Every structure is written in C-alpha cells, then in structure tokens.
Fold each of these.
Amino acid sequence: MKTTPLFSLGLVLCSFTLASAEPPAATPGKSDDRPISAAALKKYDKDGDGKLSDDEKAVMIADRKAKAEKREKEMLAKYDADKDGSLSDTEKATMREQRKKEMIAKFDKDGDGKVSPEEREAGKAARGEHKD
C-alpha cells in the first residue's frame, strides 16, 4: 500500500489523540532493542515468553496499520469537504482546529480554555488505561 501524506498525518494524530506513547515495559519485552509496551506485550505475546517473535510482531504491525488506515478513512470522510480523496491545506487546518477543540473539551477540567500540564498528564494517564 502506498503511504500518503494524509496517512502520515493520521499516524501523527493517532499517536497524539488515541494511543500515544505508553511507558515501555520495565522488564522483558525488548524487540530489536526497542522496548515493547506492557499492553502490546500482553496483547501480542501469544506464547507468553515475555518478548515478541517475528510472527507476533507481524500481527502487531498489521493491526496497527489497519487501525491507521481506518483512522485515515474516518478523517477523509469527516474533513474532506470537496471529496477529492485528500485534504487540502484548508481542510487540514479545519481538522487541526476541530481536534484542538475536542482535546480542550475533553481534558480542560478547570474550564480555562487551555490544557494545563497537569490536565495533559491526566489525559495521558487516561489514554494509557484504554490502550490495546
């Protein structure tokens, strides 16, 4: 599958809004010298050996790619006003502004119209609780 700029933008937005970085597993779970999150290890380590085999990694990568492709389609459906199959600079700006408003509405607990560092940390913690 060809990677488009929108796909890349979708990956960035997904990582920011949906399931950004969860702290890596403190114990086993290293794969190619990159730490694997505890949630990913729990979900994809089918043989229970504390690390991901090549087959287990392939399943994880396929799942993540499918999730990103689904998100890209959702973003196009929602923000591609002219229905040309890609987001123009104006459509991207609209998307960013809408996502910013959604994040503020979701995480601005004190109602000041901004997400403070404490609210940002609470949001990260909440997303971590719902990660795969």
Note: The first helix runs from residue 5 to 17.
Amino acid sequence: MNLRPLTVADETAAIRAHEALASEDFPFLFDFRLGDSFLAYVRRVDAFNDGGPFFTEGGVPGIFLVAECEGEIVGRLSVRYELNAYLREYGGHVGYCVLPGFRRRGHGTEMLAAGLDLLWRRGLDRALLTCDDDNVGSIAVIERAGGSYAKTIPGDQEGGADKRHYLFSRDSSPATLRSLKNPIVSPPGQKA
C-alpha cells in the first residue's frame, strides 16, 4: 500500500469512493459536494497539505492522503497535528477509511500505523483516535494496534453516533505497530 496526495487524475475514483461511503454517512472527501470543480478541490487539499486550514473542521494543520494498492484507491488517511474543541471530542488526530470492497485486508492497520508515525515525526507524544461506538471494524483495528480505551461520549448535536476515545503514546506503541512495515508516504510531487 502507498499513501500519496490526491491528484486531479483521481477524480473518477475519488468521486466513486465518496459516493460509496455516502451510504454509510461517512465522507471520503471532506467538504466536497458533487458538482464542485475537482481541480479546485485538489488545490484546496494541496493548500491544506502545505499548511493551510483543515477544510471545515476549524483550521488545524495536518495532511490528507489517499491510500493506493496496485494502482487502485482503497481508502484515505487524514492526520491532524493539532486538535480544536470539535476534534478533541469527535475527530481525534488520525482519521482513516477503507472502501467497502477492500476491508479486512490490513489497509486500516497500515493507515493507522502511518498516521501515528507522521504524528511521532512531528514531535507529538500522544494521539487521540475516535471512532463510532458501533464501528466494529475500526474498534478492532484500533484495539489490535494497542489503542488504550479512554471513554465513550454521546454523539454530536446532529445526531451522530456515540464516540469511543482511544489513546496512543509514542513510548508505548505496541510491537505490532513498531514491526509493521510502515507504508511510505509519497512526497506531494504532482500538484494539480
């Protein structure tokens, strides 16, 4: 698996992924509406990856990458280097999703390991991950990776699911994450 920036060449696959996850009420592309200019969207993602604000989630720095396996987009990873009030409750430092046809193949675990690695490289010592209380797949990935359960909080005002909070520490990263061959994150290289 390779993690890399989104490009304009990804338009068809990314929109297909966005539509596939819409039925699960989970965005593949943050703050994207069908009919928007994909070129303009990729430029916004590039600006975010270069230090700009994180879409509509309150302007925290981070990175948004797509996960690719054998030339096909299988998911996405978003890493927030800082947390605002909303992210402290509902989003956490690392967010990832795996497209339905590619689940249960280890992609979520690889993305989580890469996201934590990016945080540790930035000098963070602790990371918060959240997931819906009924997302059995994410719960399994996070717990297998050594996430320490902290609490469950009620869903947001918009009727979202209750959120489970998990903590990771750089010093206590489990052997499963340390021994995992972290995917190489491709440099931005190709801009829109």
Note: The chain has one domain: 2-179.
